[in-house]
Amino acid sequence: MKVFVYSYREFDEAEWFTHFSKEYGIELGTSPDAPTLENASLAKGYEYISIITTKVDAMLVQRFHDLGVRMISTRTVGYDHIDLDKARELGMQVGNATYSPNCVADYTLMLMLMSLRKMKRIMQRAELNDFSLQGIQGRELPNLTVGVVGTGRIGRSVIRNLTGFGCRILAYDLYENEEAKACATYVNLDTLYAQSDLITLHMPLTNDNFHMINESSISQMKDQVVLINTARGGLIDTKALIENIESGKIGAAGLDVIENEFGMYYFDRKSDILDKRDLYILRGFPNVIVTPHMAFYTDQAISDMVKHSLESCLLVDQGKPNPWNVL
Ligand code: COI
Fold this sequence. Notes:
Layout: E1 2-5, H1 14-24, E2 27-30, E3 48-51, H2 58-66, E4 71-74, H3 84-90, E5 93-95, H4 102-116, H5 119-127, E6 145-149, H6 153-163, E7 168-172, H7 178-181, E8 185-186, H8 189-195, E9 198-201, H9 215-219, E10 225-229, H10 238-246, E11 250-255, H11 277-284, E12 288-290, H12 299-317
Parallel strand pairs: 1-2, 1-3, 3-4, 4-5, 6-7, 6-9, 7-8, 9-10, 10-11, 11-12
Bound molecules: 2-OXO-4-methylpentanoic acid.
2-OXO-4-methylpentanoic acid is lined by residues 52-53, 76-78, 293, 296.
C-alpha cells in the first residue's frame, strides 16, 4: 500500500518514516509542503495521505476525494483543522494519531510553574543584570487549587504530575474517569471556575466548547487566576483574555496555543510582517508566556506520531478495526 505524506520534515520525522514504512511494507511519497489545492495532485495514485495541523477545508477534502484518496490521517491528536462534515458526506475516513501524553503534560507543568514563579520577568531582568526582588514574588503550588478541564489521556497525565506537588486538584469532564478520580475531585464547571487558583485546559476543540473561556466564565473565576492552555487557541476568547489581563483579573497566562495560528507555526517568519496583532499584544504582557505550539515536541512524540499515522492507514487498508478512527 502507498501513503502520501505532506509537511514531511527531513530533520526529525524522516528517520521514523523510513523505519516504520519499512517495518509495515508501506511505499511513501513525500512533500515538505502543507497540502493545498495547488499541490493536491501529488496525492494522485495514493489512497492514503498523512498530514499535520494545516487546514484541510471542504474544497480540499473534495479535491482529495476526486483524486482517489480514501483516508486522511493526521499525525496529530487534534483534528479540528479538517472539515469532517465534508469528509463524512463523501464517505472518506479520517484518523488522528495519539502519542505519549507526557510531552504535553510535562510542558503544562512547566508553564504552570513558570507562570506562578513569574519566570518570564525573572529571566528578562537577569539578562539585564537587574537582580532586584520587587515584583517577582511567586506563589507555591501546594497552597493552591488547580482545576483541570478535560480528563482524557493528557489531562490525566497532568493530574498524575500534579499529585507530586500536594495541591488540591479539581477536575471537569463530560465523562468521569476512575484513574482521575483517585487523585482529583470531579466538580461542575461553575465550581471549578469559582474555586481554582489555576485552570488548565485539555480537551479537543469542538463547536460546543469554542470560546468556553470568555467574559462570562472569566467573571466567575478567582481574582488573579492563572490560565494555562496547551490544547487549542479557540477554547479561549482572545479579546476577553486580553481585557481581563489588562484589568488585572487574570494574574498570569501560559499559552502554548492561540487563536488564528494557522499559517504561522512551524515556519521561520522572522522577516515577515505578521497580521497577528493578538500575538504581539499577548507577548507584550510581562505576566503572559506565549510559546509556538511546542508542547508536543519531543523525540518520543515524533516517533509515535509517525508510527501511529502509518499504522492507522495500514489497519484501514487491511479492513481491521482502527483505534485512531475519528470518522
Ligand atoms: C496535536 O497533536 O493535536 C497537537 O496539538 C500537536 C500538533 C500541532 C503537531
